[in-house]
Amino acid sequence: MNLENKTVLIVGAGRGIGRATAELFSEAHANVVICSRNFAELMELEYKLNSKGNPNVLAMEVDASVESDVQTLIDETLKKFGSIDFLVHTAGLGILKPFSDLTLKDFEDSINANLKTAFIVLKAVLPVMAKQKFGRVVMIPGVLGKAPMIQASVYCAAKYGLTGMIKCLKEEYRRSGIRFSLMHFGGVNSTFWDGISTMRVDRSKMLTVEDAAKAIFFAATQDGEGVVAEIALMPESHQLI
User: How many helices (H) and strands (E) does the chain have?
Assistant: First the structure.
């Protein structure tokens, strides 16, 4: 697939699923805008994409929970590339603890990272896409935006909220040429699990970040009238039907 002259904005692109997704879009010759809070990771990824033949990469250090940061990101993207055709939001924070051990800060951090960032980014990007009469939005509520799990109460609260928000936006932007896709991944071996100490998991049996990125790319790049509204992708050991 050739996405030349199309622009993808990937929020949370420094590592994991976001990074793997950036690589796929770059291989398809898209203009790639990558952002996260880790500038060193972004610079390394930008260098990698450039060295593989894509000079059209914009890397910006951005805190997606800060409106002014996000607006600067959008302004710079439009200045450099003129459009935002694809939005992939992979930023987030995993907090898995027994409810009795959770703090108010845990709740606020989960809402801010997983839901507030998506709200701020969407508020800035959707008007651009609506004006273009074209846009593809991929959000990742994960399987915990669809099904409950022990020790996941605050995480599910944020991810269920993300699912609900996107389903409402699908109705609001029905005639704007914008399509929304929800990725319900279960058990992806990413840095999500690095800070989880309250659960024992076998990461060797999880999906890879490349598996997840391929699903995102597939959903975002559908032609014709077909819309991949939701994908539930999980390892065999985590099947949910």
Answer: 7, 7
